[in-house]
Amino acid sequence: MKKILVIFLFVLCGLVVLGKSVIRTTQDWPTYFDPAVGSDLSDTIAMVNFYDTLVFPQIDGAIKPFVAEDWEVSEDGLTYTFSLRDDVAFHSGNKLTAEDVAYSMNRLLDIGEGFAYLFAPYVENAQAVDESTVKFNLKQPFGPFILALARLYIVDKATVQENAKEGSYGENGDYGRNWLLTNDAGSGPYMVEDVKMEEYVKGVKFDEYWGGWEEGAPEHFIEMGTVEPITVRTLMGKKELEITDNTQPIENYEAMDELPGVDIALVPNGMAFVISLHTQKAPTDDIHFRKALAYLLDYDVCTEYIYPGSLQSVGPVTASVPGHSEVFQYSFDLAKAEEELKQSKYYGQLDDYPIDLSWAAEAPEEEKIALLFQAGCAQLGITVKINKKPFGSMIADAASKETTPNAAIILVAPHYAEAGSMLHSRYHSSSCGTWEQNEWLQSDEIDVLINDALSTADTKERFAKYAVIQEKLVELCPTIWMFDFAERRAYQDYVDWPTVDYLNEGKIPKNISGYELYFHDMKIK
Predict the structure, then answer these.
(1) Whole-angstrom Cα distance, residue 500 to residue 402?
(2) Which of 244, 267, 486, 487 is an S-S bond match for 309, by CB 3.0 to 4.6 Å?
(3) Torsion sign (Cα): 428, 433, 437, 441
(4) Mean pLDDT of the 440-444 span
(5) How many other C-beta atoms are found inside a 10 Å radius of the C-beta of residue 114?
(6) By three-state DSSP, how is residue 411 classified?
C-alpha cells in the first residue's frame, strides 16, 4: 500500500512541475478549507492561500492593514468600522465589497463552526454601510478583536449562494458547505485547481491577485494528505517535495538532513504539546488524580530525546505568546505523585480505573510520549491503555463526553497572537465538543474570568487578567502541559522561505498557525 501511495504521489507531483514552479508540502488529513468550518493546521494552510482577510499577521507578530485600508473604533468599543480597498477581485471575477465581508462574518456565526468561537460571544452582526465600508456591531467589548480578524476569511457571497444546496440554514440552504469542500470562493493569491478528498489539495496562481506577484513566486502549491515517513523521505530525496509536515519522527528529519540540498528549519511558533485530561470522566475527574499524573511524566526525556529543541511548558500559554505568565511548573517526581494519589478518591482501587490514552497516528513521535507516560504511571500502579487513532477519529471522539478518552495527546496553537486565544479555545465551555478541549472543563468561574479578560480594552489590564486565569488553571490541573513545541520541517534549499530568512537573522518568527506557509511570499530559486 505504501509503495502504491509513493508511486501515486510521484506521478501527481511530476505532472505539476512540468514547466511550472511549485511548492509541495505534506500535512495530515482531513483538510477543510471552508472558512466557516476549518480551524486546524492543515485547514489554515489552505485557507490563508485561498482567501484574504481584513488584516494580515506579520512574521514579527504585528498586524497590518490588508483588504481593510483603515478602521475606526467607537468610544464604547462596540462598533468597528472598516474602509476597504476598491481593487480586490474574487477568483470568480466579482469585486470584493463590504457586503461580502459582512456576509462572511454572519455566515461564520450562523454555521457556528471553525473559528466562530472567536467571535460568537462578542459579535452581534456585521453590516455593509456602503460598497467600501463595513461595520461590526459587538455585544460587548472584545480587546483582541483586530488580532482575531486574521481568522475572518472573506468569501464571495454571490458564488457561495449560487452553489448552495437545500440545507438547514433557511433561505441560505446549506450555505454552500458541500460545494466548498472541493472549491473555493476566495480572493487570495491562489485558487483551487483540484482536490481529491483524503489525498491532496492543489492550488494555482491567481494571475489577477490584487497583491501582485514577484518573480520566482510559486505558480502552484500542493498540500498532500500524507505524513507517512518513508513516502515523505523518498519524495524529498527525489526533489518532488519542497517542505515537509511538522510531525515526522526525529530519525526521519535527521535522515533527510543528510540528503543533498535539504535543510531543517527549527521554528518556535507558539504551539504546544499537551496531554488533555477528561475532567468529567473517572478517574481523571479527581483533581488529585490529575495532579498525580502531571508528576508522572518525564519532561526532560520529552524535550531532550523525543522532541529535542523544545522547552518544557510553563502553564497553559506558550512562552512566546504575548500575555504568557510564569506559573507553577510540574516535574517528574514519584514522591509527589504518590502524595497526590493518596488524596484521590480512587486510591486503593486503581485496578478498577484504567486510563484510556489516545495519540494521533499521523504523528509517530507521539507514541513515544504515550509509552513514556504509560511507564511513569505504571510505577504507581496506574494502568494506561494506549490507543493509536487517526486524527480525524480523535476529532470525532472529542465531540461528546462519552466518547472522549481520559487522556489525549494533542498539539495546540494560538489562533491569534495573544494568550486569550489559547485560554478561550482550550478552556472556555463554548469550545467543549471540539478537538481543542478534550478536558470538558466547563468551569463557570473560568468562563467568567475569560469573558472578562477578553472584554477588557486596555492591553496591560487584560494581560494581568490572563495571568490570574493561568494560575487558576494550573491549580485545577485539567491538562499536562508538556512542552512548547519547536516545529521542525525539512525543506529544499532552492526554496526562499521568509520564515527561514527571519530565523537566519537571529529572530524568532511569531507567525500564527498556517501563515508560516503563505506561499505567495516564497520564491523558487
Answers:
(1) 43
(2) 486
(3) positive
(4) 97
(5) 23
(6) strand
What is the per-residue pLDDT for 8?
47
Q: How far apart are CA 389 and CA 403, in angstroms?
A: 13
Provide Rg for the chain, Cα atoms.
23
Q: Which three cell numbers stand for residue 182?
A: 472541493
Q: Which three cell numbers stand for residue 394?
A: 480523535
Pairing status of strand 355-360 against strand 495-496: unpaired
Is-contact 66 55, C-beta < 8 A?
yes
- Separation of alpha carbons 465 and 452, rounded Å: 8
Output the DSSP codes for 423-446. HHHHHSGGGTTSTT-TT----HHH
pTM (2 decimals)?
0.84
- Report the C-alpha gap between 440 and 133 in whole angstroms: 40
406, three cell numbers: 481520559
Q: What whole-number distance in Å separates Cα of residue 193 and Cα of residue 492?
A: 24
Mean pLDDT for the chain?
94
247 burial class (0-12, 13-18, 19+ CB within 10 angstroms)? Answer: buried
Name the amino acid, one letter, at 104.
S
How many C-beta atoms surround the C-beta of residue 507 within 10 A?
Answer: 11
Which pLDDT tens digit goes with each residue over 345-379? 999 999 999 999 999 998 889 999 999 999 999 99
**SS3 of 170-228:** HHHCCCCCCHHHCCCCCCCCEEEEEEECCCEEEEEECCCCCCCCCCCCCCEEEEECCCC
Instruction: Output the nine-digit C-alpha cell for 418.
Output: 495573544
Distance CA 479, CA 40 (A): 20
Secondary structure E strands in 260-344: 262-277, 311-312
List CB contacts of 196: < 8 A, sequence separation 6 or more. Answer: none
